[in-house]
Each structure stands twice: as C-alpha cells, then as structure tokens.
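Model: Ready when you are.
Researcher: Fold this.
Model:
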Amino acid sequence: MEIRESNQAQFSFRVADLSQSTFQVQSFSCDNLAISKSYDYEIKVISPFQLDPGQLNDQRAHLDILSGSKPVYMHGVISSWKYYGPSLDNLEHSYTI
C-alpha cells in the first residue's frame, strides 16, 4: 500500500472476496485494545450499492490504516453489523471485527 495524497482515503476496508472499492471508510473505533485481551473494531462505511450484511457475518475482513510510511493491518472476522440507511447516493453500514 502506497502513501496517498491528502485528498485520498488513508483507510480501506476489505471483506472476503468483495472488490476493495466496495466500501469507503467513514470512521472506526476500537474497544478493549490491550495485550492478551480481546478487542473489537467497529468500522463505519458507505457503499454505492445494496449489500446483504447478514451474508457477510463470519467472513474474513481487513482494515488497512496508512500511518506515516508504515501501514497498519487489522485482520479479523465480522461478528456483527448495523445498517443505518441511505446517505446521499450511498448506503451506510457498520461492521464489527
């Protein structure tokens, strides 16, 4: 993953075999991040088309974060999802990995 211009996304969210352009990251947060503890990342995304989030449960997911010159990769399995509804020309969802 290369360093991007300031007007380009610094985060990406990928799920299983879906195209990397399926989601655009709006925000993310992490709970319980500590050594030897379980943690959850909640990633809020938009997508240009309707997905069945229920079919994405238990699928592999990756949150890629560009941090300086060294990217950070978070890997997990989708454990839950929320559908927020339409937002302009996109649909808002959030996924927990």
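Researcher: Now this one.
Model:
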Amino acid sequence: MYLHPNPVKENMKVMKPISLTLVMSVFVGLLGMWIGGCETQEQKVERLIGELQDQEWSVPSNVAYALGSIRSKDAVPALIQALQDQDVRVRGNATEALKNIGTPEVLKAVKEYESRQ
C-alpha cells in the first residue's frame, strides 16, 4: 500500500518561510511608519529645507513645491535663497511656493525677484 504525503504538511514547509517574510515586512513597514510619525511638523519642514541644497535639480524643485503646498512660513528664507538657484525649474517652483505662502513681505520679495528677471 502506497501512502501519499500529507499535502497540508508539505504546504506548511513552503508557507513557513513566506509567512515569516511577510511578518517581517509588515513589521519593518510599521516600524518605519511609527518612526516617521514621531517627527514633528517642524522637524519635517527642517528636513525638507535641507533638501533644497541637493545638487540634482528635481529634488529642490519638488521640495520647493511641497513647501509651498503646505504654506510653510519657516521655509521662507530658504525659498528666497532658492530664487538664486542655477536651475530655472527650481527658481520657478520656489517663486510659486513663496506666492502660495503669500505674506506681504514674501510677496514683496517675489515682486523684486520677478522685476530683475
């Protein structure tokens, strides 16, 4: 008499590593979300401001856009400095970000910048 291997037991051997991998992936993802969630809004803005100095044009350009979207007044000095960037795309997004922030002194700085262009 021939006995077939227990299919449930055989599948468990295959599923065990997959299950462990899945659990570890979920754990790492949740840990990352928790750590990222521990940052205050001010810390996130400071981190973004630091990214305005990146050498790849797309990073400061996207950061300027993001800072304008959240209307971060803390980012105003860095955004005004970004108006001097070599890349026109960075300068353009910095200009729009400052317009979104929209305080009178910021709008004055944007007007002065645009008059020099």
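Researcher: Key takeaway?
Model: The CA atoms of residues 98 and 106 lie 6 Å apart.
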